[in-house]
Amino acid sequence: MFQRARAVALYDGTARDLVHRLKYGDRLDLGRAMARMMTSAGAELIAEADLLVPVPLHAFRLWRRRFNQAALLARSVARMSGIPCDTRSLVRVKRTRPQVGLTRAQRAENLQGAFRVPAAAKPRLAGRRVLLIDDVTTTGATGNAASRALLRGGARQVDLLTFATVSAGTD
User: Fold this and answer.
1) In this structure, what DSSP letter does residue 98 have?
2) To 5 degrees, how large is the angle CA 49–CA 52–CA 57?
3) What global pTM score does this model have?
4) Which residue, among 148, 150, 157, 121, has the nearest Cα to 1 in the 3D structure?
């Protein structure tokens, strides 16, 4: 599980609109501005991170969407912060159904076994503090499932930085 989490905003109003435009409206240009806000909101976590890792999409979803919004945000945060971004240290091996509309328990079950650290990536993660990047935190199920895989893969610590969160308690 991740240790700490930070987000720029609550997932409502303008923040929700920005995420939807980026994710579903092909507004990739918004990624840079969103990443700038994430870099500011997550400054403490970034200062302690050795590596940025975006939450990966399953190959089928990546093919359908044509880009991974978490990877887009992570690359921009990396450019702004100077912390390296590794898009190959975590893979999504299970094609999960969309999380929208699922309960907390259903989300956790849906993501069980969804992520894996490839053997070749384990030396890159060994003993490192990883900052996991995603667009939205809802229940924390995705962040927790991805963090568990990263920790099993050798990471020393995993924190989570997202653009928006559903709950004020995530920060």
Assistant:
1) P
2) 150
3) 0.90
4) 148
Taking only the tens place, the pLDDT of each residue in 101-142 is: 777 778 777 778 889 999 999 999 999 999 999 999 988 888
Q: Which residues pair with 164 in a beta bridge?
A: 9, 136
CB 54 within 8 A of CB 70: yes
C-beta of residue 12 within 8 angstroms of C-beta of residue 138: no
Amino acid present at 75: R
Structural domains counted in the chain: 1
Which value, to the nearest 10 degrees, does the dihedral of the CA atoms of residues 28, 61, 46, 18 take?
A: 40
The DSSP annotation for 46-73 comes to HHH-SEEEEPPPPHHHHHHHSS-HHHHH
Tell me the residue range of the domain where 93 lies.
5-170
